[in-house]
Amino acid sequence: MSQIPSQLVEQLPAVQLLLTLLAAPICSMFRNGDLSWRIATVASWASVACAFALLHQVWGGGSISYEMGGWPPPWGIEVVIDELTAIVLLLVTLFGALVMTALRKSLSSIMRHQRQSLYYTTFLLCMASLIGITITGDAFNVLVFLEISSLATYTLIARGRDRRALTAAFRYLIMGTIGATFILIAIGFMYMLTGTLNMADLSERLPEHYDNKVLHASFAFFTIGIALKVAMFPLHYWLPNAYTYSPKATTAFLAATATKVSLYVMIRFIFDVYGVEFAFGQMQLGTLLVPLSIAGILVASLTAVFQDDAKRLLAWSSVAQLGYMALGMALLNANGLTSAVTHMFNHAMMKAGLFLALATMIYRTQSSSLAALSGIGRTMPWTTGAFAILGIGLIGVPFTAGFVSKWYLVSGALDKDWLPVAILLIISSLMAIAYIGKMLDVMYFKPAPAEFADIKEGPKSMLIPCWIFALLTIYFGIDTRLTAGLAGRVASNLLGAS
Amino acid sequence: MTDILLYASFLVPLTGGLLLLTQKDSENTRDVISIITATILFLIILSFYPTVLAGNTPSVTLAEPIKGLGIVFTVEPLGLLFATVASGLWILTTIYAVGYMRGANESNQTRFFLCFAISIAAAIGIAFAGNLLTLFMFYEMLTLATYPLVTHKGNEAARQGGRVYLGILMFTSIGFLLFAILWTYSLTGTVEFKPGGILRGHASPTVALILLTLFAFGTGKAALMPFHRWLPSAMVAPTPVSALLHAVAVVKAGVFTVLKITVYVFGIDFIAETGAGTIILWVAAFTLTAASIIALTKDNLKARLAYSTVGQLSYVIVGAMLANAAGIIGGAMQIAMHAMGKITLFFCAGAIYVATKKTEISQLDGLGHRMPFTFAAFFVGSLSIIGLPPMGGAWSKWFLLIGSADAEQWILLGLLLLSSLLNVVYLLSIVGRAFFLPLPTDSATPLPAENIQEAPLNCVVPLCLTATGCVVLFLFGDALYDFLLPILPKTEP
Question: Closest-CA residue in chain B for A402?
């Protein structure tokens, strides 16, 4: 009897991937939206449990290697899970599951019943592919899953009720395809040089080719390609529209996971596959990344201040926040990297919560323009309360998760004696006060427009996930063993590998 | 045992505040809970005195959000003094607020008392903060918790005031204070409050000068010009809020922060050696003179009191920046003395409003005979603010003057004396008007003068008590001096 659980534990990495991957086609077979939703929700929460179990196994610095189908690497596909993987897995599954739970109500108002099951299918596929990207130890596999996730994302965005969702999806399709092609070229070049696609293998064999022009080209292609996927300034062009016009709660999922997983791929490849010395020493990635990310932070924050649509405002804020993570990575010291990984998790949590709270409001008002949301603090106090907590977290006020990541980031900049950078970061925080304050001011103090004067509080199924996000934001501002503690170990691992 | 009490000092007001939510419908139970919570908190704070007088500084760590940097509570004399002032006056303010809020028929009273309790919890957190990070966290919590109190009325003026309030306090704290904290951290590798300071040997005189300037301006709650605008704006709040928060908790949290940073982060010897306080010393000197002059021009009673507060706060900053024994002691005493005096004045302003609906000084002619207790208390409070014996305020002004003489800052000494004179003019003219001018006979005033009486009892009793407190503090000046002595470096006499 006791062997069954232990065998199950050994197979966990595969279970993690298969749960959502198999639930997707099952969902598509039903024409009943509610039933599909139930299956999808159960599958996604089960994968949260899996992610927790995996995190538990690697907690403290462990690592699991799993051979898919019993083929040993480098012939077969290897699944590698260490602490960084586990935290990203948790991010994708937990926040995905929370959004999934809230999704049913949000969808039922905009989509016919039969279509819904297909939507859940796409959602699950997207989640499964993001999980795949995260856990795989095979470079080509990353690309495959990246493509699946992109295709699923295009579909999700295009389902927006606004006609502009189609152009937004198309724009993302073009940019995403260019990005994926570049990554394909980069991986192809690496394969050409080394004859292997396994990431651990690659990292061993690449150093002898450090002076090879082909590897330089491969690195350049990879950086541009993944920067497109991450929506790193100035390659963020697709993101604001995609977030603004995608349907309701979907934005919450995309904002939380898609760009974060791409960022994870970036960290993985730059630090583990190419190697820190090559990327930052020989190829001078820092000189490119630092100014661009700072420019991105400032430009995007400033743009956010002048938006009249809450969704678009939050989308621009995402571009700025991704700049924080990129900067943290480019600082190349323990505090900076800790901040990047911590903020990856924290930002995913806060942004998903914000978009979800917004979706709850839109569920009642049918519009995300600030004019329609005025005075909503009185009609929907609970939703707005959660929104306010999450917004305050995004600013980086103490006792919230955002404070922790910002503290590490500014410390990282000061460790390098980059005083101007630290000052610019502080200025960007002030801009965050401006744009969050602008929304809260409208929501709490402007009189509500007549047609929304007596709307009711949002449905419980949406409200509860919102509050879970809000409470988590406070929790991770106080107890940071899971976020910053883990991130600190990850950071010293990544830097120590050089 | 002390550990539990330390946790309790922070949790009691929070729990009490949450309990209020369950009693939304019965006003009396709710208000009784408020008063009981305040009393328990005060007793807890008092229970620390034996330990601290024995020379101990008990400490607990609540959590550790950033590696090596915990949320730490430490009780030391300076913080305990501030905590005593805040929690003691909370009891009186609660009694007073019950009368005021009912008398003035304010809405949303439960939210009001809840935010009040959270603000006190934050003030206690600031008082007992064991490091800069903890201090900063509770500092921000205080800003956010008081915001709903400032905008309580919910009208356009309240919103406008609230916006200025939040804007300036958030801007300075994140823009300067947080930055200065991070800078200190990266210089020294710690943010702990240590007797004698942590910066010595880590910062050059120039860096120290910049840092201290950042710290002082970053503490927007200390209302140094040009970041003082929030304080007059916050006067749109109901008077009990102005009384407790903007004469005691919030502004005192500001100057307390500056004082604590001077003593425990820089160390006064370090400041004296490097001259790091020069810029802020003169900014504060300018502020206290300019604010007194502006106060003269204000006809609105609360606005005049607000500018008076701006000026009086700078006394504390001056004391801190002088960086000698008398200056620090004087500054620390000023926290308690000014709190007691200013809360009396605000209580009086509120009592006048409740009884007569009058807010302008020019309308107060002849009211002294109608409301004798209120105006007598106002007189006592004024004397204490000015710094005349036999009121507590005399001691703090005395030590500050000695401090500036010790530092041979003769111009500063002159400015302090000039400001005291200005205080006499702008405060005592109000009392004079009330007692010596005849009651107006025209009917333009809101209420017929004949019907004016003292405000309700739970407004008048607290203000008489605080006025008595001003006298009592004078008698205990010596004890306070001995109590505060341990915060100075050992080498000083």
Answer: B65
Task: Tell me the pTM.
Answer: 0.84
- Alpha helices by DSSP H, B371-436: 372-386, 393-406, 410-436
Q: Chain centroid to CA A138: how far?
A: 21
In A195-238, which residue ranges form alpha helices assigned H by DSSP? 199-205, 213-230
Could you say which of A396, A404, A426 has the minimum Cβ distance to residue B65?
A404
Query: Three-state SS for B267?
Result: coil
Contact A356, A102 (CB under 8 A): yes
Residue ranges covered by each domain of chain B? 2-487
Q: How far is B64 from chain A (nearest CA, A)?
A: 7
Chain B residues touching A437 at Cβ < 8 A = 166-167
Cβ neighbours of B178 in A, within 8 Å: 410, 426, 429
Asked whether residue A237 is assigned to any structural domain, the reply reads no
CA B443 to chain centre: 39
Kindly report the nearest CA distance between residue A338 and chain B, in angstroms: 11
B69-74 and B59-66 beta bridge pairing: antiparallel
A254, part of any domain: no
Q: Is the ipTM of this complex over 0.90?
A: no
Contact B185 A414 (CB under 8 A): yes
Partner-chain contact A410 B179, CB within 8 Å: yes
Angle CA B187–B188–B192, to nearest 5: 130
Tally A–B CB contacts below 8 A. 69
The answer to whether the CB atoms of A422 and B183 lie below 8 A apart is: yes
A422 and B182 in contact by Cβ < 8 A?
yes
Given an 8 Å threshold on Cβ–Cβ distance, is B170 in contact with A433?
yes
Q: Give the one of B137, B140, B175 whose C-beta lies nearest to A426's C-beta.
A: B175
8 Å CB contact between A198 and A142:
no
- Quote the minimal CA–CA distance from A426 to chain B in Å: 6
Distance in angstroms (rounded) separating the CA atoms of residues B166 and B304: 21
How far, in Å, are A50, A464, A485, B117 from residue A83 at the CA level? Answer: 14, 29, 11, 42
Considering CB atoms only, which of A398, A430, A437 is closest to B140? Answer: A398
Nearest to B67 among A398, A415, A484 (CB): A484
**Cβ–Cβ of B66/A410 closer than 8 Å?**
no
Query: Is A494 within a domain?
Result: yes
The residues near A3 (Cβ < 8 Å, ≥ 6 apart) are: none
Answer yes or no: do B178 and A426 touch at CB < 8 A.
yes
Is residue A333 within 8 Å of A399, Cβ to Cβ? no
Task: Give the chain B residue nearest A378 (alpha carbons).
Answer: B154
Domain that holds residue A430: 296-498
Distance CA B470, CA B472 (A): 6
Amino acid letter, B153: K
**pLDDT tens, N- to C-terminus, chain A (498 residues):** 455 667 777 788 888 888 888 888 888 888 777 888 888 899 999 999 989 888 888 887 778 888 877 777 777 788 888 888 999 999 999 999 999 888 887 777 777 766 788 888 888 999 999 999 999 888 888 999 999 998 898 888 887 777 888 888 888 889 889 999 999 999 999 998 888 888 888 888 888 888 888 999 999 999 999 999 888 888 888 888 888 888 877 888 888 888 899 999 999 899 888 888 888 888 888 888 899 999 999 999 999 999 888 888 999 999 999 999 999 998 888 889 999 999 999 999 999 999 999 988 888 888 888 888 888 888 888 888 899 999 999 988 888 888 888 888 988 888 888 888 888 988 898 899 889 988 888 888 777 777 777 788 888 888 899 999 999 999 988 888 888 888 888 888 888 754
Amino acid, single-letter form, for residue A176: G
Identify whether A90 is part of a domain. Answer: no
| Closest chain B residue to the Cα of A421, Cα to Cα | B179
Q: How many domains does chain A have?
A: 1
Contact across the interface for A411 and B163, Cβ inside 8 Å: no
